[in-house]
Amino acid sequence: MSSLSLAVRDSSTMLRRNLLHARRYPSMTLNLLLTPVVLLLLFVYIFGDVMSAGIGGDADRSAYLAYLVPGVLLLTIGGTTIGSAVSVSVDMTEGIIARFRTMAIHRGSVLIGHVIGSVVQCVMSVVLVGAVAVAIGFRSTDATAVEWLLALGLLVLVSLALTWIAVGMGLSSPNAEAASNNAMPLMILPFLSSAFVPVEQMPGWFRPVAEYQPFTPAIETLRGLLLGSEIGHNGWLAVVWCVALAALGHLWSRSLFARDPK
């Protein structure tokens, strides 16, 4: 069997393993998924009219729902990848990785299985949160089929980038609790972006924090694809951020995984 065939076979096996774990122990995924759903309902039904008026429009809850959904979808991805950090940390600390190292399997398949499994879970989580958004009134009637495909591609790319970073955080953490805490910025950063209010409405001292981070260009690009707003330079910025984070996370994770266990 060629090296490529071996890698594909073993990666597929590790992917099935991680998906089975997610199915058998869904509590963490459900807990992480519950946060964006609660925030979506809270901001729409409690703060929707006030927030809509505050960003320069009329008191229109449906308009704020349309503005809010792209940011909540990115928040969902950030939250879901925390589960990947915890899962990787559990594998590293409970001895299964030491067992894998003694077996004739492709070394990188363990990480690849975690990454692909996490991306699949991210996409499923986005679909579920998107279904809730549609159920409470979100519509994207102006988006073409090409724009929908580009939006899906962007969500997958963001999932891939954040998952590699989360895997690195899981590998560098001494236990599952530390991995969960270390990965929390992946869920906190969307709150410091344009997910809930436009960057222009923020205090001047805070705008650089919201503007020069990966979530804001990704949210603005997704918002433009789904709602027809101006994308500008955010499209290529989002892609550059995702590629850079994916490459950084991949190299970091490989380096940590290649170290001999203590």
Structure explained in plain terms:
- This protein has about 260 residues and is mainly alpha-helical.
- Helices cover about 75% and strands about 0% of the residues.
- It is built from twelve helices and no strands.
- α1 (about 5-25) crosses α6, α2 (about 25-45) packs parallel to α6 (about 110-135) and α6 (about 110-135) packs across α7 (about 145-170).
- The longest helix has about 35 residues, at about 60-95.
- The model has no long low-confidence stretch (mean pLDDT about 85).
Write the layout of secondary structure elements.
Layout lengths: L2 H22 L2 H19 L2 H7 L6 H33 L2 H6 L7 H27 L9 H28 L3 H7 L2 H4 L18 H5 L3 H13 L6 H25 L4
Helix pairs in contact: 1-6, 2-4, 2-6, 3-4, 4-6, 4-7, 4-8, 4-11, 6-7, 7-8, 7-11, 7-12, 11-12
